[in-house]
Amino acid sequence: MRPTCYAGEEGLSRLFEAASAGTVFAAVQGSRGPQYVNLHTEPDARFALREPRPSASPKAFLQPIKERVAVYATTGVDAERSSPASERRVVVGLRACDLKAIAYLDKVFQEGSVVDPFYAARRQADVLVSVDCMAAHETCFCTALGGRPFAEDGFDLNLTPLDGGYLVEVGSEKGAQVVEAAGDAVSPATDEQRGQRDERRDEWVRALEAQTGGWRVSDRIQEILLSKDEAQAWGDETAACVECAACTYICPTCHCFYLYDQVGGEEAFERIRTWDSCILGDYHRMAGPAGAKPSPRPGLRTRFANRMLHKYAYSPQQYGMLGCTGCGRCIEACYGGVDIRDVLRELET
Amino acid sequence: MTRSVEANPYAPQVACLSRVIDETPTIKTFCFDLADPLAFRAGQFVQLGVPGLGEGPFTPSSSPLDPEHLEVTVLRTGEVTERLHRMQAGDVCTLRGPYGKGYPVEKLEGKDVLVVGGGVGLAPLRALIHQLFAMTDRLGRVVIKNGARETAELLFRDAYEGWAARDRVSVEVTIDRPESGWTGPVGVVTTLLDHVGEDVDVANCYAFTCGPEIMLKFVAMKLLEKGFSAEQIYLSMNRRMSCGVGKCGRCNIGPHYLCKDGPDVCYATIKDYPNVFG
After folding, report:
1. Less packed terminus of chain B by CB within 10 Å, N or C?
2. DSSP 8-state code for residue B86
3. Which of A5-14, A36-45, B177-186 has the highest mean pLDDT?
4. Radius of gyration from C-alpha coordinates of chain A
5. Three-class DSSP category at B134
6. pLDDT (tens digit, 9 = 90+) per residue, A173-185?
């Protein structure tokens, strides 16, 4: 693997150009905080790599809100238009928590007997560039779930903001090729720069620990959730929930989707995949006469419980990891003021 | 199907209906003569749909030993099934699958098998029954108990006599309410389980049941009461399903996705999780 190198602010832009990607999505400064934009359509945007994570999770890059997954007619399937098309994209500004979420999505969509070809094609083509957190939102709590504000794997390139530039760590062959192509945009990292990186990382772990008061979600959470008597519980939490599903849409690991068919031009039909949410009442509803609407989880309480159970109890069994990274986005997004940290603390008492 | 579409689990194949059989006033069987046979194990399901409208999960009712002639028996109960019921021979449906685990047929060697159906629930069980009939020499008794609201809703009624005429196979049928001309048992299907200990060797038997969820619940309770263990009871769990391959999230009971780990699941596997019975 190519050794760690250094890029100045100007060198950084050249580095991403070297990836010769059709699209570069980057975390940039927006009027309402850091956000992802396409640098090709907004070339004047200024990087937000020393700011906290963008409010939107990068999930939509890998699993779009809506996409066509098949085209067919009564004569058969249009194989070409039912296959994934992928161009190389670079996503800049992912955080350690985002990479953890992507590792989770990889398990959902790429492991097991069936691979999702659309996800896999994007995953294969995309270059993921993460950045160490040098600032956090009040809602960030990755350390409570065993995370740290910097990534050690899962990236193609990782950036550590230093004074006047960035340390660039190479995490994959794809990343190595980008650095190779960048030529003199990067220079070998010095020991001093490496030392500075380690110091800054330590500093930010301490800052986050101070913010969360050293809180750790205990391993008992799985057991606590599984033994909770649902019929009696979850009243307080669900009283605040307005069933908008924002928590699930903003969540970097939530991946539920729904397939629906529609007419797509003369004599042709399309199958569309769209995001869905386990919080919504219709999510589990089965076919049945109007009024009956059979559902295994008719009440919000059971759906709220199922979401918590999936994140902290079922996911470890299904995928060997939690379905929560502690990014805190659901807390920011919630209209009802539900704070998942409070829910977890409440469960543990 | 081309290779690239095979790799796309969401793309359906299209299949022309060769025949539609009126089974009951609310149930029809849709038959396909497939050039590209859809090989399935009893209990595995397919996603059958109406082009441009959508699809739903259905377990074939035909014999898994005859994959070229696929039959799917469907109750008219929602938007897609309403439209399916208006289709005729020659019309084109969408089809994907098979998905799920299927019944654990390999466990049945030397065992008695109890099959309990309710309403359209007998449809997937017929695939199992065909499978069992192909291996009766390796089984103990096969006891089939079926119920419906009324005689007009008794599914595959013409087949019962032929099934019962087989060696070591018995068929018992009940309807929910008395009806003129009906001399058989009256009451919900669980009443046929009162004497289950006389029909099968409870300690050496597996039970498979499919029907409305409320029925599955009472069948499970009754069998436990009669001495079955949760490990011996397989329930055909119905959940809304979309992808069919364990990715879209909606059909979970605990950490198990019914599309992948079911839809027929051992009661012992799911009984301690919430929302097993709605």
Report:
1. N
2. T
3. B177-186
4. 22
5. coil
6. 999 999 999 999 9
Question: Cβ contact (<8 Å) for A70 and B49?
Answer: no
Across the interface, whether the CB atoms of A289 and B77 are under 8 A apart is answered yes
Q: Which of B47, B241, B250, B271 to mutate to test the interface with A (most CBs of A within 10 A)?
A: B250
For A77, the closest of B13, B78, B239 (CB atoms) is B13
- B105-236 to CATH, choices 1.10.260.40, 3.40.50.80, 3.30.930.10, 3.40.50.280: 3.40.50.80
* Closest CB from A226, A284, A298 relative to B250: A284
* Average pLDDT score over residue span B254-271: 96
* Residue B30 backbone phi and psi in degrees, to 5: -105, 120
Task: Please give the ipTM for the structure prediction.
Answer: 0.94
Q: What is the mean pLDDT of residues B122-144?
A: 97
CB < 8 Å to B272, chain A: 226
- Nearest by CB: A259 against B13, B242, B278: B242
- The secondary element (H helix, E strand) that includes residue A279 is none
Q: Is domain B3-98 in CATH 3.30.420.40, yes or no?
A: no
Q: Please report which confidence band the pLDDT of residue B3 belongs to, taking 50, 70 and 90 as the band edges.
A: very low
Give the residue extent of every domain in chain B.
3-98, 105-236
Pairing of strands A269-275, A66-73: antiparallel
DSSP A147-204: --SS-SSS-SEEEEEETTEEEEEE-SHHHHHHHHHTGGGEEEPPHHHHHHHHHHHHHH
For A302, phi then psi, to 5°, come to -70, -30
CA distance A297 to chain B (A): 6
pLDDT at B194: 97
Give the model confidence (pLDDT) of B67-112 as tens digits: 999 999 999 999 999 999 999 999 999 999 999 999 999 999 999 9
Residues of B in contact with A271 (CB under 8 A): 10-12
Mutation for B interface: A67, A80, A115, A261, most B CBs within 10 A: A261
Hey, where are the domains in chain A? Answer: 5-212, 221-348
